[in-house]
Amino acid sequence: MSKPFASALFFLLLASCARRAPETDGANWLMYGRTTDDHRFSPLNQVTEQTVPKLGLVWSRELNTTRGLEATPLVEDGVIYTTGDWSIAYALDAKTGNILWMYDPKVPRDRAYFICCDVVNRGVALHNGKVYLGTLDARLIALDAKTGAPVWTAVTAENKAYSITGYPRIAKNLVIIGNAGAEYGVRGYISAYDAETGKLAWRAYTVPGDPSKGFESKAMQDAAKTWEGEWWKAGGGGTPWEGVVYDPSLDLLYFGTGNASAWYRALRGKGDKDSLYTASIMAVHASNGELAWYFQTSPGDNWDYDATQPLMQLDVTINGQPRKLIMQANKNGFFYVLDRQTGEFISGTPFVPGVTWASGLEPKTGRPLVTPAGYAGSKPVLVSPGPGGAHNWNPMAYNPSTRLVYLPAKAGSQFVHAPNMSWKYDADRNNLGDLATYEGPLNAKMLAAPPPQGELLAWDPIARRAAWQVTYPVQEGGGVLATAGNLVFQGRADGIFAAYRATDGQQLWEFDAGTGIIAPPVTYLVDGQQYVSVMAGWGGSSALFNAPTEGKVKPGYGRILTFALNGTATLHAPAYGHKEPPTPAMPVTASAKTIHEGGLLFNNQCAPCHGINAVAGPTPDLRYLTKAEHAQFDNIVLGGARAELGMPSFQKIFTPAQVHAIQAYILSRAADSAKPAPK
Ligand code: CA
Q1: Domains, in order of start, for the chain
Q2: Ligand 1 ion: nearby residues, β-carbon < 5 Å
């Protein structure tokens, strides 16, 4: 055999080995949770508990955004594939951070009104030379991995209220994608497309539609028995808005579903119906989307306890029996362990203190024992966990040596109150915003509630207890990475990116990323060197709502950062935010009554982006509006003059008189904030 031929063959073998063994060698990070079991565990061990003090920045790349960055970067052969705000996809050179290509799907910016929780995206899927991207306006786009050029586009939405923030999942030759929009009255489903052509292979709904049109499946027919009235008119909800996971050995897909629409149980009927399959973990056959099993974590949801948190597979022996498990740290405060072949409930354990909506779970079925506090009477009641949940989309990690799951957990509360029973579904509105009234006294009570607290929790899923936890000074912790270096990496809302010892939670290293981190880090090899990358960009619903109880969060400009041992780069983070109190643009002339009404409207409809009490995080702080901007106020709010910047027209939502009340409220807030602090 000639030498060139032999070395070519050697390289071919190497390349094919690398492709065949993506789950074991750790060089690449080819899918959302790195491996199909979604453990987010890397076998790489250059960066260890001993060497991590030498970890330093190699490069950072500004992404020119102040909105949330949530993506898991995927890495193949030294190229990072990731997403920023507005579903923009990037390919970067992992060694230098140079942008190789960028693809902007040009999502219409007025879509922002139909996005509950920021214009975020959690990343792409890679398969056979293509990059798959879900967009905020619910398109699924296949891009050429080399050039970023679109190969095919599929419209996955059935109406304008659907969106996608989750990542696509590959199952054999199919690309699977979910959707969001239950706050806006859509009917949830996942769709499977041919990865090469973009042709729809099947669609699996999560809630039943209009019975007069016939049910798509027996699963939908069965589910319809758990709904009352004309539920389909409000969509039904149950959107699988995070990701879908896949077990190739069982050929099953797993995903969680979100809240029902209508949102409050009392608005969905008189009785105590469960509204299947909302707030559930579902398993469907990858070949045709038929339901294999379901497990409803929060029947009759009344608290926004979406069951969409990341699902993790684990094969273990329990009581001498080999079990194929699937696990989830649910928004509702319980850590669930189920048999992923059958859906059998194995265990459910509170993983944060102070869970009050349920006193526990039925030992055999796992059905929650809802407390009287769970369904409010006429007076609002404080219920825990809060609307952000005890854990949300931020991914968790598992280390097979410590046998611990590492996750960002948080304690918090919410007021549940009796809904406005005259509510009618309106496709043009954020229907949740119409219901949640953060008005004066209630608002004050909410802010006076026990301060929300966040922690990195090391959880033993089999022994069902915490091994350790590290409390941080903010509520929001980012996604987690575990490595064979006995390390756990995690960023958080105050911008600190830290490494902890996996066995006991001792912090060993930290770096200030200059803005809050919510995304999970990844690690990989390029030319034999181990790198760690993370997206830093404070955003999401907590950031936009900007409740004062959130702690020392750090809004700023978003970036991607990459670290390696002996990295010596310095981060130059541009300054962000106002340094001085606002100067009111004009005197407040409106009556106290008008200002009060403006405040109610603002905190229901505007605060979800511009911050509660008009104190903003990542979006423009309206207390700082100039006189010229105030002169354009009607034009912006009703006329949509800033729709291209993500501020949609509220013409269908507000009357001109209401807009003037909101303007008066903003001016009064500027005046309040401008006053020197009382001595
Ligand atoms: Ca929800």
Answers
A1: 1-67+310-390+393-429+445-573 (2.140.10.10), 592-674 (1.10.760.10)
A2: 258-259, 304, 306
